[in-house]
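Um, can you check?
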Amino acid sequence: MGFPKRVAVLTHRGNLSGKFLEVILCQILLAGPSWAATFSEALIAKLDCPDRVNSVAFSPDGKLLAAGYGWNHEGGVRVWQASDRARVYTWAAKRPYHGAIGVDRVAFSPDSRSLAAATPAGDILVWKVGAWAEPRRIILKAGSPTALAFSLDARELAISSNFAVFICDLKSWQCRKLKSRTSTKEEFIVAGFSGDGTKLGVCRLGAIQWWDVATGHTVKSWDTKELGFFCSLSSSRKYIVAGGGAILGDKNVEVFDASKGESLARLSAIRSALFTSAISPTDEWIALGGGDYGWSGGYLSLWSLPNFREIGFVFAGRSPIQELAFSADGSVLAAGSHDGVVFLFSVEKLRGPERTKQGYALCGEVLAENKKLYIVPIAKVPPPMSLEFDYAWELEVVDPGALTSLAGYPVVFQDWEIESNTAVDRARVNKFASLWSEPKAHKLRTEYVVFGDVQNPGWNKGFVVKVYGGSSFVAASNTGECLAYGPLSVTKTPDFDTLSARLVSEGLLAVPRDPLTEGADHYRIRFIELSKGGSVQVRSDASPSSQPTKKQEEFRRIFGEEEGFIDALLHAGMHPPP
C-alpha cells in the first residue's frame, strides 16, 4: 500500500491544528517507495561517514573535500580527493568524559594549506594539509560553534559561538575574545572577513554588522528581523545570505548587499527546517538546505543570483542537510547530511522541481480557492490536538486544465505525480476521472452522509466513506488512497434518502453533539456527518472522559448498526460512473 510521498499537508491554512497534523501525517505519507527512488539525476556520489555529518568544505584549490562529523558514537574529520573521491585522511576524536563527541565545523584556509575544525565545546583543531599529523589544538572553550572563517591572507581565524566571537592568530597561536553577548538570548554567526582583513562580518540577534577586527567596535550595522542558523558571505564580498528556521518555527532567508546593507531578496515560503546556505564562488548561485528527521527527510535547492529565482530542488536522505559547500569551480555541490553521508550533486543538472510518480489512485474533491485549484479529502476529519474538524491534507494542482470545471465534485487521480519545490508539494495529474454521474446539481452535491474512522497513531488504518445525494459513493483512506467508489446500488440501500431516513430513525440526531473531538494527540474517533436540507449535523464517539459515557454508547450503537453497510461499501470495488 502506498501513500503520497512528502505531501506538505495544511501548509496553506496556517492554523494550529494544521501544524500538528502536518507533523503526524508526514510519517504516514512517506510510506511506499524508498527515498532513494526519488533522487535526481544530478546525484554524482554519496560519501560515507561514521556518524552524522555536521559540516562540509572544499579546498579553494579544488583538490580536497572535508567533512566534520559526530553525534553519539564516533566523531572526527574525513578528507577525500575531490577528483576521484578517494579517501585521503580520517581523524577520530577521543570521547570526552561528558558532552558531545565530534566536529561541528570545518573550513579550509584561502591558500588551501590549512584545515581548521571546531569541536562541540568550541576548541579549535588545525591541520597542515598534506602532512596530516595530529592537529594543533587550541583549548578555547568558546562554546557551541556556529561558524569558522579565515582571513584572506590565511593569517587569522575567526570562530563564533553561542556567546562570543574569537580571533586566533595562526602564527603565534594566540586567541583573543573580540566580543561577548550582552544577553542570554543572543548568539553570533561569523560571515567572513573583509577583503583587506580589517573588518569582520557578523550576524547577531536583530542585526548584521561589520566589526573592526582590531577593536571589536561596530563599523556598520543594519537591522534584520531575527537570527537564524546561517550567515554566509560571498567570495566577492558582494552578498551576505542570512536566515534559517526550525522544523515547527518560522523560516526565512534574506539576501543583502554586503556593503550597503540593502535587502535584495527575501523568502519565507519554506517547507521544512532550514539549516544552511552556500554561495557559489562565481556569485551565480545560492544553495539552501535543511529538512527533518524521517518525515520528509532532507532537501536542498538551488537559486540564481541576483534575482533569487529557484532553479532546482531535490530531496536527499532521511535526515536534514546540515551544511552545503560549492566546489572551487562551482560545478559540484556537497551536502552534509545527518544520515552520516556527504551527497555530491552536479550543479548543472540541478534543474526543476523533483517529480515523484505515485503508484496508487488518489480520491478526493476538487477545491477552487484564491484563484488556485486543489484536491482535498472527500471530508474533513478530527485532527490531532484540535477541537474542530479539518482537512487532513490538500494539494495544489499544477496546470489543472479540465479539472477546473469539476470544482466541488469528487474525482480520482489515476496517473499522477508529486511535484516538489522549496515551498510546497503540488500534484501533477496525467490522467483523472470524475466520480460524479449525476447532472451538476448543487442540491445533490451538498446533500451527503459521511462515515469516518480516524485514529492516531495508525492514521493509515482508518477510512472515510461519503455517500452523495445523487446516490453514488466514494471511500478512501485518511491519506487519500482510493478504496472503493461507484453507485449505491451495489448495496441493499437503494438511495441517499433511504440512508438518511434510516440514520434519523436510529436516533443519530438525538445523540449529543459535543464534544466532537478529544483535542488529543493519541485517540480513535468514529463519526457520522449528515447534510440534508441545508442542515449539517455531525456526531461522534469522542468523550473527555476515559470512562464510557451514554453519548458514546448511543453513538457506537448506531455506528455498529451501520457497520454492515459501511463494510459493503469499502469492499464494493471501483466502478467508475458511465
Observations:
- The two ends are 28 Å apart (CA to CA).
